Amino acid sequence: MTAAAVLVAAGSGQRLGAGQPKAFVRLAGRPLLEWSLDALRTAGFDDIVVALPPGFVAPSGCRGVTGGATRSESVRLALAACPAGDAVVVHDAARALVPPALFEQTLAALADADAAIAAAPMTDTVKEADSSRLVAATLDRSRLWLVQTPQAFRRDVLERALDVPAAVLAEATDDASLVERAGGRVRVVESSAENFKVTTPYDFKVAELLLRERQPC
Ligand code: C5P
User: Fold this and answer.
1) What are the angstrom distances between the C-alpha of 33 and each of 1, 64, 92, 129, 160?
2) How many whole angstroms separate alpha carbon 104 and alpha carbon 40?
3) Relative to the CA of 52, which ligand 1 atom is closest?
4) Cβ(169) to ligand 1 under 6 A?
5) Pocket lining: 76 vs ligand 1, CB cutoff 6 Å
6) Which of 25, 111, 153, 173 has the largest count of CB atoms under 10 Å?
7) Phi and psi of 188, rounded to 5°?
8) Is 149 in the pocket of ligand 1 (CB under 6 A)?
9) Which of 142, 159, 138 is nearest to 90 (CA)?
10) Of the candidates 9, 105, 111, which has an alpha carbon nearest to the alpha carbon of residue 50?
11) Are 146 and 119 in contact (CB under 8 A)?
């Protein structure tokens, strides 16, 4: 199976509040997106398409496209610029601590699925509450997963799933949900909480500590 790689890095990073797009904020000595690019290259991807905020250029060695107003729109635009292939892995630049082996694991899980998603088991108890914050239900956490990227797809399936109105794309917080909506089979590949999405200033501090710990002195 030949696989292309999409790195989505076009978010504004509002929740981080760094005054510039999150993917370009320096994390442990280099722009945040470089950590995910390294992981993709270690996993053997050398033709990577990166969705970027308007006006930003792609790091050397990868192709850049200007991203869209929403995450899934950015995926759709980047996918259109990918070389031909049977499969595609989509990864959030914000998940800087991704273990490179996870790309191959999600691709391998496509053997009996249309999509395969990295996800961590729930450790907290999860409750559903109504708008007045009265608890309506306690969910069975043994069946719940915290969904991450990479997400691997059969390419034709993802292209069809993304071929929907902009309003539908805007509601999707991941691409696999669009495949589910189209009736596709999505498999979970167990990952760890360390593959978290660097979103807030707190996440940034934790990621910085973990990445510095990994670097040789
Ligand atoms: O907004 P969210 O946290 O879901 O973003 C996840 C990833 O999607 C980030 O790496 C971000 O840069 C990317 N993104 C994008 N285009 C957007 C919004 C988010 O590429 N319009």
Assistant:
1) 26, 12, 9, 36, 28
2) 10
3) 20
4) no
5) no
6) 153
7) -90, 135
8) no
9) 159
10) 9
11) yes
Q: Are 72 and 179 in contact (CB under 8 A)?
A: no
Whether residue 94 has its Cβ less than 6 Å from ligand 1: yes
Tens of pLDDT, residue by residue over 56-112, are 999 999 999 999 999 999 999 999 999 999 999 999 999 999 999 999 999 999 999
Q: pLDDT tens-digit profile of 19-70?
A: 889 999 999 999 999 999 999 999 999 889 999 999 999 999 999 999 999 9
Computed on alpha carbons and rounded to an integer, the radius of gyration of the chain in Å comes to 17
**Alpha-carbon distance 121 to 144, whole Å?**
7
CATH number at residue 103: 3.90.550.10
Domain count, the chain: 1
Domain holding 207, by residue range, is 3-214
Ligand 1 centre to CA of 73 (Å) is 10
CA 151 to chain centre: 7
